[in-house]
Amino acid sequence: MRRETGAGGPHAGSAGGSHAGSPGAEGLGAREALAPDDVAQDERWPAVLVAGAPELSARLLAEVFGPLLALGPAERALLVGTLEAWLECGGSVGRAAVRLRCHRNTVFNRLRRLERLTSRSLSHPCELVETVLALEALRWAAARG
Questions:
Q1: Cβ of 1: how many Cβ atoms within 10 Å?
Q2: Is the CB of residue 122 less than 8 Å from the CB of residue 131?
Q3: Selection from 8, 3, 5 nearest residue 122 by Cα
Q4: Residues 125, 87: contact at Cβ < 8 Å?
Q5: Helix (H) or strand (E) segment spanning residue 127
Q6: What number of CA atoms fall less than 13 Å from residue 31's CA on the CB side?
Q7: Beta bridge partners of 78
Q8: What pLDDT does 33 receive?
Q9: For residue range 111-131, what is the model confidence (pLDDT) as tens digits?
Q10: Which of 43, 63, 45, 38 shows the shortest CA–CA distance to 142?
Q11: Cβ contacts of residue 44 below 8 Å, gap of 6+?
């Protein structure tokens, strides 16, 4: 199991529908969602991609985060906030734990739960890209209300 990583997932091994307007877009954590017109194209490419293809973004959100959206708002916000912190900390579980004021094992457990719910491994680059794009789609759906 990988403990501290730069760009990889919370561990080395792989982890074992709703739509964009569905409940679940609230409680996104520290970062705010951006409307398509608010995104400078050279600023945040994932946000630009999501905003530029709303139908595909809604499908991606439903496919990747569908089970996550079915959770209660508090649990969903906890998992999404953990994912955001982990991403903002460059994939470092230790730094994310400090930011979230919890034990590093708590971060590992939350990320593993997210992997199970999404059927995406955060340590596989293509699956991580899908997860990040789904996160942007969730933020965009929240901004659109």
A1: 8
A2: yes
A3: 8
A4: no
A5: helix 125-144
A6: 19
A7: none
A8: 45
A9: 999 999 999 999 999 999 999
A10: 38
A11: 34, 136
Q: Which structure tokens are listed for 1?
A: 């199991």
Q: Cα–Cα distance between 139 and 36 in angstroms, integer?
A: 11
Measured in residues, the chain has a length of 145
**CA–CA dist 101, 98 (Å, integer):** 5
3-state secondary structure of 142: helix
What's the average model confidence in pLDDT over 62-73?
97
| Tokens 């490419």 found at | 45
Q: What Cα–Cα distance (Å) separates residue 120 from each residue in 30, 126, 129?
A: 23, 9, 10
Compute CA distances 14 → 49, 55, 65, 122, whole Å: 26, 29, 17, 8
What pTM, to 2 d.p., does this model score?
A: 0.71
Read off the pLDDT band of 15 (50, 70, 90): very low
Q: Which residues contact 142 (CB under 8 A, 6 or more apart)?
A: 25, 26, 28, 33
Sign of CA dihedral 31, 108, 91, 53: negative
